[in-house]
Each structure stands twice: as C-alpha cells, then as structure tokens.
Amino acid sequence: MRPIRKNYQQFHKEVNIGFQEAVKNLFVGNYHGTKCTIPLILQILLFAACTIKSIFNACRTKANFDSHTLANTLIKILPNYVKLQNRVNETLRNQLPKKLFTKARYIAIDLVLIPYHGEHLYDVNEVYRSQAKSGTSHFHAYATACVVHKGFRYTVALVPVAKGTTMKTVVQQLLKQCRSIGLQCSLLLLDRGFYGAETISYLKKIQQPFIMPMVIRGRKKTKKQPAGGTRKYADWKTSGWDIYELKSVKKVDAQYVIKKTKVDVCVYCKNLNGKGKQNRRQAFVFVYYRVSKGSAKWFFETYRKRFGIESSYRQSHQCRIRTSTRNPLLRLFYFALSMLLRNLWIDFEREVIMRGKVKKQKTSEYYGLDNFRNDLVKLFAESVPILTACNFTHIP
C-alpha cells in the first residue's frame, strides 16, 4: 500500500524564504531595477533549478521575461570570482545545524566534473582537463567537502578547481575552509584520485587521519614470477595489514625529483557470492594514517560512508540550472545554487520529515529530492507570493 503524501505547503513557503535569503547573501549591495527586480530574479532562479531548465527557458515559461537582461543583471550584482567563492562557503556554513560543531566529524572530499563543450572565456586555466566523459575531455571542475551527520550528508565547503591544480592544493583549500568555519575533522575519506606521495605526505605532515583506496599498479602474476608493485595486494585471499613505500616522480626545472613516503596498508577480502555472476574472493585495498587498527571489515564499512558525496553530486545535477554560457562566474554561481538548494532539502527532510530522528530508509518516511522539487513547482503554479521579509535559520 502506497503511503499517503502529507501536505507540506507551509514548510515549502519557508524553504522558499530560506533559498531567497541564502541567494541574496551572494549578491553585492542593493540593486534597484525597474523591470528586473531582485524578487523576480530569485523567483526565476528557483524555478529554473527546480525544473532543471535554463534561465532562457525559465524566463519564457514563468515570467515572459528577457533572459539576456537577467543574465546581464546577475553579472552586475555578483561579486568577483574569489569573493563569490568566499560568500558561497559562508552561506553553506550558515545552513549547517549547530550540532555539527559539537565534536569532530567524518569528512569526505571529492571532485565533480561538469562537461563543457567550448573554449575558455578569459584564461585557458578555466577549463579543467581529464579523462573523456560525455563526449569531451574539457570540464568545469569543483571540489566539495561533505560531512556525515546522522545519515545526512551536508555540503560544508566548495572550491573551484582550475587546470593544473594538484590534488594536494585541493585538499589544503578544503581543509582550510573547514577549519575556518570551526568544523573539526576526525577522519578524512578520500577518493583514489587523491592517491599520491605528495598528497599523502602533506596529510601526514599535518597529522590528519585519513583512509583512501590504493591504486593497483604493477605487473600481473604469472607462473614464473609473482605480481609486482601494489598489484600483489589484489591477489591476497585473506585480510591483513602491511607497510608500503610509495614513490612519485616529478619533473622540476628539467630534473626529475623522486619523493618517497611510507603508508600503512589494510586489505579486506570478502566473497562475491554470485555478485556480478562471480564466485571468488575479492580484495579491497586501503591506505590509512593514524587510524587505530580495528578489523579490516571496519575499514571497508567506514569507507562506504564516503559514497554519500557521490550521491550529493547526482542530486545536485537534479537541481542545477542548465547553461551554455562561457562565463565561469555564472557557472560557479549556478553550481553553488544547486548545493545550497540541496542543503535546504536535507534540512527539510531532517527537521520536518524525520523530526530530528536518525535517518532510516523507509518508503513511508522517505521524501526524495524529486518530490521536494515537484512540490516547490506546484507552489509556483498556485501563484504563491514571494516572501522576502523573513530571516531563515532552520525549519522548525
């Protein structure tokens, strides 16, 4: 039997207010336009995000307004690129519940690549290069930090990533941003893309505990010789521990510099039990630092919490304004709006749906982002007036 949907219209009005207050914090000063007013801009932005449309489509559908005028107005009222980044992180911090700052938390860090089919506008470093996806190897890249709080993944920091930026720099910026808002990290969960001697050496230098998968490299096992490099851990049949010396070669001033660092290795082996039509032992290899040795299974289960940040990117794409603009300022602004709206949905689900309880995957209690967006669109269809005179903290 399908659960009965409750009417959350009153709470959606408060979400509408919260979105407007969050977005207005990103603007510079007061803008007094005769046709393109701030309430109209906020209404069109929220409508475009909820319907996953472009500004042009939203203007034509919702307000019968010129999208070029709105885009030019946005460029006028937005700060420069660096200041916008700082204001986005400040707004993300204001959306977080106070309970997050009572003790150190698990934090996950990762990159999201948004495909880009075009050329740079000002600087060639605007466009990030990576492995081909969606028919292109050019992307606008952003790194985010997510914190896990009672099953809810809040985005706490956002940093744009330019071409040539090292993963060490990305980790430095995100950890610095987390410390600046007073959020302590008890354990850092990283993707295998951060695996490297430079990043690991930096984390060991600042004594930051972390877990990340080991990249499997080296020769394969043959009848005459065993597997080489890190591939030997993939052939383990039982869980265990080891120490491995990681090397990296970097070219500096026409000379090759070799950097070495030792890492602790945890190997967790489990049976696939028919998963993927396979019945064999599979080894999951992790590197870690300053993590008290529990069981190897604990490393496997703990690292699984990192995948919440992957879900955050999928969900942000479900409320991200589509655009073909070459302006990196507007692209950062649109991506930031998707993260702000997603945090509002998480807060809505935690306070209204779950009423402060621990999140459980029950069909009767789950209120997905799609339901959230659709209900907000219905709110627009009923011509509910835009409210701008209220201050939003958290949904009661």
* Tally of strands: 9
Helix content: 25-40%
How far apart are the termini? 30 Å
- Biggest pleated-sheet summary: 9 strands, mixed
| Uncertain segments | 1-5, 383-396
Task: Please indicate the percent range of residues in DSSP E strands (runs of 2 or more).
Answer: 15-25%
The helix-strand sequence is HHHHHEEEEHEHEHEEEHHHH
The shape is globular
Which class of secondary structure composition applies to the elements?
A: alpha+beta
**What's the Cα radius of gyration?**
23 Å
Number of alpha- plus pi-helical segments:
12
The whole-number mean of residue pLDDT values reads 83
Summary tags:
single chain; 396 residues; alpha+beta; nine-stranded mixed beta sheet; 12 helices; disordered N terminus
Kindly summarize this structure in a few lines:
The chain is of the alpha+beta class and 396 residues long. The protein is 38% helix and 23% strand.
